[in-house]
Design brief:
Number of helices: 13
Number of domains: 2
Structural class: alpha+beta
Order of helices and strands: HHEEHEHEHHEEHEEHHHHHEEH
Strand content: 5-15%
């Protein structure tokens, strides 16, 4: 059946936003879902007198027939739960069509540091950028957005769209983690936002940390920026674009986004990890130094969080003062990123944690020292 209706500009923008979130494959899917939800609402209003949407007292939206204030919640919330659990990974993170697309890329940005140069701990990549899978997600999503805007996607637009889809992805990965009893250290959902309570804050955090943000001087920041996977064009109103390395990384097959198993043993393929490590060793001095400095500390026998912090503190010049919390955050972030790439493993004994440098980590240090 074909149904025609008068679609206002505002409604069209809302439909486009739904499709861009990756939750629906086309207009038909979005409109069909809306109609089915409306049926649930209408049935509850007619039979129960009203429906509350939301979960906080005083903040719920009451839909009623004006004759009674009876509140009916269960059926609508159950329907929403079933919808949430049936979600798949949003299309914005799909690899389909990217391999054959014409790359929209820019050159790697210049760097004030050189490979092998000693870099102060406070200049390492920010410790709260503590996972690499979100960076992969943002690169993949930006690649898809660039298919329609090859000269670059406005920062605000890219950040909003990617963060919204990342929240849906976060819900999906959280459900996957819970259903498969994936432990905290291996959880896929860590650092992703969600669509639940305080979702605005989580999406904003994700947008700033794992897509990009800009300061008053027009300087971009964020993990993909720090790793030189994403760059910007223009300073006042920057447009985001992938570097050549970022595009290659975005289009590589990933075991989470492209072939999710019940209990994945790694977040990246061997090809992805080797590619990213090679890029870091050649072109990202800040991250390269952080990896080597931390790996050498662990190899020397300082293999607990406190011991690593103490050893790194000794490398801080006397004229600099860093708080313990900041130093711990920098260490934790670097180790978490190295763990994602298979350079370090965490070993837990109750509440105690220790670190082990893997063979790949030892090889990374060896190659670095030989250069």
């Amino acid at each position: 059946m074909i149904v025609c209706f008068n679609c206002s500009a505002e409604t069209k923008r809302a439909l486009d936003s739904l499709l861009e979130s990756g939750q629906y494959k086309d207009y038909n899917d979005a409109i069909s879902s809306a109609i089915m939800n409306l049926v649930v609402l209408q049935e509850e209003v007619l039979t129960g007198g009203g429906v509350i949407i939301g979960g906080n007292a005083g903040a719920d939206l009451l839909i009623q027939d004006g004759q009674t204030t009876q509140i009916v919640q269960a059926k609508f919330r159950q329907a929403n739960t079933q919808i949430a659990e049936s979600r798949t990974i949003p299309l914005l993170f799909s690899r389909d069509g990217l391999a054959d697309a014409e790359p929209s890329v820019t050159d790697l940005p210049d760097d004030m540091w050189a490979i092998g140069q000693e870099i102060p701990l406070e200049r390492w990549i920010f410790g709260q950028y503590n996972r690499l899978l979100p960076a992969k997600a943002s690169c993949r999503a930006l690649a898809r957005l660039l298919l329609n805007q090859p000269t670059g996607v406005p920062l605000e637009e890219a950040a909003e769209q990617i963060a919204e889809s990342a929240a849906v992805l976060g819900d999906f990965l959280t459900h996957h983690d819970e259903q498969n009893n994936i432990t905290r250290d291996d959880a896929l959902s860590t650092a992703f936002p969600s669509t639940g309570e305080n979702s605005d804050k989580s999406r904003l955090r994700y947008a700033n940390q794992f897509v990009a943000s800009v300061n008053k001087e027009g300087q971009l920041s964020g993990l993909p920026i720090g790793l030189k996977l994403i760059s910007g064009r223009g300073r006042k109103n920057p447009r985001l674009i992938l570097t050549d390395i970022g595009w290659q990384f975005a289009t590589m097959s990933n075991p989470i986004f492209d072939n999710l198993q019940e209990t994945p043993t790694q977040k990246f393929t061997e090809e992805e990890s080797e590619f990213l490590l090679g890029h870091i060793a050649q072109s990202v001095p800040v991250e390269d130094f952080a990896y080597c400095a931390t790996l050498k500390v662990i190899l020397s026998g300082s293999n607990t969080p406190d011991a690593v912090d103490e050893a790194l503190q000794q490398q801080v010049p006397a004229d600099r003062t860093l708080s313990k919390s900041f130093l711990s955050s920098q260490r934790s972030g670097a180790i978490s990123r190295m763990t994602d790439l298979g350079l370090v493993e965490r070993v837990r004994d109750g509440v105690r944690v220790s670190y082990i440098v893997t063979d790949a980590g030892k090889e990374y240090v060896r190659i670095h020292d030989n250069h």
